[in-house]
Amino acid sequence: MLYIIGLGLGDDKDITLKGLEAVKKCSKVYMEAYTSLLSFGLSPNGLSNLENLYGRSITLADREMVEEKADEILNEAKCSDVAFLVVGDPFGATTHTDIVVRAKKLGVDVKVIHNASVMNAVGVCGLQLYHYGETVSIPFFTETWRPDSFYEKIRENRKLGLHTLCLLDIRVKEPTIESLCRGKKQYEPPRFMTVNTAIEQLLEVEEARGESVYGENTICVGFARLGSEDQKVVAGSMKQLLTVDFGPPLHCLVIVGKTHPVEEEMLEFYGL
Amino acid sequence: MLYIIGLGLGDDKDITLKGLEAVKKCSKVYMEAYTSLLSFGLSPNGLSNLENLYGRSITLADREMVEEKADEILNEAKCSDVAFLVVGDPFGATTHTDIVVRAKKLGVDVKVIHNASVMNAVGVCGLQLYHYGETVSIPFFTETWRPDSFYEKIRENRKLGLHTLCLLDIRVKEPTIESLCRGKKQYEPPRFMTVNTAIEQLLEVEEARGESVYGENTICVGFARLGSEDQKVVAGSMKQLLTVDFGPPLHCLVIVGKTHPVEEEMLEFYGL
After folding, report:
1. Residue numbers of B between 226 and 245 with CB closer than 8 Å to A
2. Coiled coil where (chains A, B) (predicted)?
3. Residue A44: is its pLDDT beyond 60?
């Protein structure tokens, strides 16, 4: 059996009782490393805390490993219980859907244990989850690559009065350009996008496209470390949020659509 | 301190370690009753299981009680730790936003402990959460009341190729017409909408509006008891799903938009 277990958002105590029971009976425990180290603020020390809690040693599985060794992991899951731990909910990212598809094709039983994810925890700011449109991703712009397909999606959401959740880029294990040339793998330090950078990029795209989809007076909510003890939630105009230091990762951003009175009251509590 | 604690979707073991720790230190524990009895499949017996697990007695708080006694609950939370337990995630419903607003106005500290909700657990069917549009609610039609405002929302989602999550009506503690006339409160037995009824109503509205937003060949995914051990997930056309018995509550429905190959592969596994 392959258990895909959501760990929730904050720290090691956000696992469910059901999730913990499942981990404890697994002979092998993998943990996706792409985003988890950053979002759980894990040092190698933090990982051993998790190992103590679970009573199991954990193998970190980065993107390469999951892609290359998926069949190996799935073969283990054929004859024993294997856990694959995922920060948030198991279906926040496409990679996890992919591993389920591969498991089902190999005839491996899969059991999913859900948990909170950014997709529902943003509800804490008071904006109703029912009134969100399509979610967008904001990638880091480079000198030569400045994709702005999020602009149309935000436009359509705003036409309908809907809120937009913006997921902000995370770069881990990006090979350095130097290492690519030399054919030897060396990695850039991990980078995560701040609310401030996201807003700068959004405003740059608005400037270039000029359709007045949003502007520096558009009300947004910035989030940092959502679901953790020290989460930070601030509502204000884009211009105002540019001046806020949200601190350590992970960050995300909501562009506010049409609001109802209860939503407005809640936003006031998070105002600058 | 007022702790608003998400219990997740399936049963008593879906609470997080953090949530359980918080409940155990509260002097008073309330549990919202609107949907929880149905979705946890709770009998009075089930409630005592929860009480044993938490080591606390639980006061069921129905909608009337939350509205009438909110100030009383919040006053208790001023000088002691009070837990308010919510099935799913705390911000699935407007009522909970409302109690947070009231708490903040009274200067009561609020701490939210997140969990899985329908809004993210539907991800289990393989349709990417990023590609959902606005969520709609399908209310029970009566002889004289057949509201169809969901139709425009589904239309806008489908124009953009987005999936639509349809939340289906739940009626608990509805006063009987007889009791309203007599001024004495008597309640109808609880009712929850099945996937089948939802599809019948959707097709009736399409028939009346005639804009070909969807039809009996539109692919959907029906869910029952999402997140429970015995959850049922079936993908198929509206016509096909009409013939499926999804069993006990709660049910919900997704109208599928434009799909990507990985999404299609997952839907195949849930096909009839």
Report:
1. 227
2. none
3. no
B87 and B110 both lie in a single domain = yes
Residues B48 and B134 grouped into a single domain? no
Boundary (domain end) residue, out of B116, B147, B168: B116
Contact A10 B18 (CB under 8 A): yes
Number of domains in chain A: 2
C-alpha B24/C-alpha B199 separation (Å) is 43
- Per the annotation, does B57 bind a ligand? no
Shared-domain flag, residues A224 and A90: no
Residues B18 and B148 grouped into a single domain: no
**Domain CATH number, residue B99:** 3.40.1010.10
Cβ atoms of A72 and A127 within 8 Å: the answer is: no
Environment class of B180 (CB within 10 Å of its CB; exposed 0-12, middle 13-18, buried 19+):
exposed
Q: What are phi and psi for residue A218, nearest 5 degrees?
A: -70, 130
- Closest-CA residue of B relative to A167 is B130
Dihedral through CA B246, CA B252, CA B256, CA B259, nearest 10?
-90
- Tell me the residue range of the domain where B135 lies: 119-269
Give pLDDT tens digits for A211-254: 999 999 999 999 999 999 899 999 999 999 999 999 998 999 99
Asked whether the beta carbons of B104 and A269 are under 8 A apart, the reply is: yes
CA distance B69 to B65: 5
Cβ pair A120:B92 closer than 8 A: yes
Which amino acid, one-letter code, is at B85? Answer: L
One domain for residues B235 and B247: yes
ipTM for the complex shown:
0.92
Look-up of token digits 């939802």: B198
Contact state of A126 with B97 under an 8 Å Cβ cutoff: yes
CATH of the domain at B183: 3.30.950.10
- Whether A35 and A125 map to the same domain: the answer is no
* pLDDT, tens digit only, all 272 positions of chain B: 999 999 999 888 999 999 999 999 999 999 987 666 656 666 556 678 888 888 899 988 877 788 788 889 999 999 999 999 998 999 876 667 888 889 999 999 999 999 999 999 999 999 999 999 999 999 999 999 999 999 999 999 999 999 999 999 988 777 777 777 777 777 777 789 999 999 999 999 999 999 999 999 999 999 999 999 899 999 999 999 999 999 998 999 999 999 999 899 999 999 98
> Domain boundary at A116, A151, A171, which?
A116
Residue in this structure with the two tokens 């044993």, named with its chain if needed? B52
In A121-156, which positions are buried (b, 16+ CB within 10 angstroms) versus exposed (e)?
Answer: bbbbbbbbbbbbbbbbebbbbeeeeeebebbebbbb
- A219-224 and B2-6 as β-strands: parallel, antiparallel, unpaired? unpaired
Q: Which of A41, A36, A9, A259 is nearest to A158 (CA)?
A: A259
Integer Cα distance of A232 and B17 in angstroms: 22
Residues of chain B contacting A160 with CB distance shorter than 8 Å:
134, 156
